[in-house]
What does this fold into?
Amino acid sequence: MLGIKALTFDTGGTILDWHTGISSALAKVGVRHGLERDWGAITNDYRASSLKAMINAGAEAPATFNIDDVHRQQLDELITKYGLDAFTVEDRQAIWYAWHQLDCWPDFPTTLTQLREKFVVASFTILSVSLIVDTAKRNGLSWDAVISCEMIGTYKTQPKAYEQCARWLALDPGEILMVACHNFDLNAARAVGFKTAFVYRPKEWGAAGPPDPEPDPHHDIIADDFPDMARQLGFAPSIAESN
It folds into this structure.
């Protein structure tokens, strides 16, 4: 795609498999207490309530909290909602910390290495800086930059977040390709002038499937996965992909 100099990636969901990591952490604690629940459904409720609390934060004044704070608060509320009062302080800390130990989707690391040969590649996310650092180290991800909305004080989908991201990269918005599996993020980026790439993540929400699974047809790239996106950007299939 002509004129693209940088790729900015939504990271929770598009890069990180939060559903598997958090549902496993909840189930592990549940087994220890002899509790049976639909851990997948509780995980999705946890994610949805956290997103609701975080999206558009800082619209009127800089946000004084980050996603780690929200994850703690929402976990406490879910424990009450689902009758999980047996969960101890240590249990809650283990579940909360599981966000910092998420695995990435397996198609991303090799593609990231490819993309960095040609583009500046940045995590542009509502997740906290420490969460991105921890998951990058865990998964061996080498970002050229980490731009967390925590640093801006205003969160997606506010235009200011995307505009500040472009300023920090010293690029015009039209020179940046925003990559995500969520239309709401991509549509907000496109409204500011970014190019957009939708990558399918059908398993992001586990068996329930994503709430917004089909891409807006106006996106510049619609890809089945990250290798497909790389091909559409002009890269040859990787050695790992061809084996």
